């Protein structure tokens, strides 16, 4: 008997009920070339349907290379096919190897040659695509909030920096477990970031916070894409940070002086 064929298929659940073969192909092609159906033509993607003909949300996808299976599982499992939309997350798992299909040898050779040529073109871009996919997954739990404060407000109220972090932590904890909050006190457009434990919580935060008014300003909320460098005082201007810490110390000492004056009276 012929040796077992390496498995190059994945089984996907959690797809939007209005998805298309084209959308699935575009998203999962990030991890490699999808095999062509040597019998019927087109991509080897099967979207499963319910008895009434509507999509079930499951799909069976076959890649040209078995290595693409592990890549798809590692990069696209628990990701969203439509980032920023509330369509849920995908579940990507290894699929069973499909049955061998008898195809005319000449047709098989012609199509396989075309696939090999396409594969050679894509191999040059694979490393860049993988790096971009890993970065997107890493940032999927981080929400950036813009217009949360002004630099003048930070200068006028030394305590604001600490209160702001606490307020954001408390508010965002209603949407999911928060891993950390950062206030970027050198950015003129009042930027804060919130790192959640899960992408679902991050998406919920964007949905709730985007367009909301805070301190008379309309907040812009989005998933961080890594394209913008976020700066805190200690990263860019240690003198400015020292000045603010001195102001805060003076503010604290002012309370102590008031207490001493009260005691003297």
From TrEMBL:
Keywords: mRNA processing, mRNA splicing, Repeat, RNA-binding. Gene3D superfamilies: 3.30.70.330. It comes from the Eukaryota. One of its GO terms (molecular function) is RNA binding. Pfam families: RRM_1. InterPro entries: Nucleotide-bd_a/b_plait_sf, RBD_domain_sf, RRM_dom, TatSF1-like, TatSF1-like_RRM1. GO terms for biological process: mRNA splicing, via spliceosome. This is RRM domain-containing protein. Belongs to the HTATSF1 family. It comes from Piptocephalis cylindrospora. SUPFAM superfamilies: RNA-binding domain, RBD. Residues 8-94 form the RRM domain. GO terms for cellular component: U2 snRNP; U2-type spliceosomal complex.
């Amino acid at each position: 008997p012929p040796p077992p064929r390496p498995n190059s298929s994945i089984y996907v659940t959690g797809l939007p009920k209005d998805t298309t073969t084209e959308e699935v192909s575009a998203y999962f092609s990030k991890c490699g070339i999808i095999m062509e159906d040597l019998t019927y033509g087109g991509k080897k993607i099967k979207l499963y349907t319910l008895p009434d003909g509507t999509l079930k949300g499951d799909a069976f996808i076959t890649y040209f290379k078995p290595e693409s299976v592990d890549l798809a599982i590692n990069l696209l499992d628990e990701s969203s096919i439509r980032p920023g939309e509330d369509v849920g997350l995908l579940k990507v798992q290894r699929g069973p190897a499909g049955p061998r299909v008898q195809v005319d040898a000449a047709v098989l050779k012609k199509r396989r040659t075309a696939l090999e040529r396409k594969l050679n073109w894509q191999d040059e871009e694979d490393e860049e695509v993988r790096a971009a996919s890993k970065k997107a997954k890493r940032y999927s739990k981080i929400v950036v909030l813009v217009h949360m404060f002004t630099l003048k407000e930070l200068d006028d109220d030394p305590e604001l920096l600490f209160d702001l972090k606490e307020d954001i932590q408390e508010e965002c904890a209603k949407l999911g477990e928060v891993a950390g909050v950062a206030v970027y006190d050198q950015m003129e457009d009042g930027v804060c970031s919130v790192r959640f434990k899960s992408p679902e919580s991050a998406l919920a935060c964007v949905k709730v916070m985007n367009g909301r008014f805070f301190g008379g300003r309309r907040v812009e909320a989005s998933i961080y894409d890594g394209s913008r460098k976020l700066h805190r005082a200690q990263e860019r201007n240690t003198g400015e940070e020292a000045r603010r810490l001195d102001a805060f110390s003076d503010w604290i000492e002012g309370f102590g002086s008031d207490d001493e004056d009260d005691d003297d009276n």
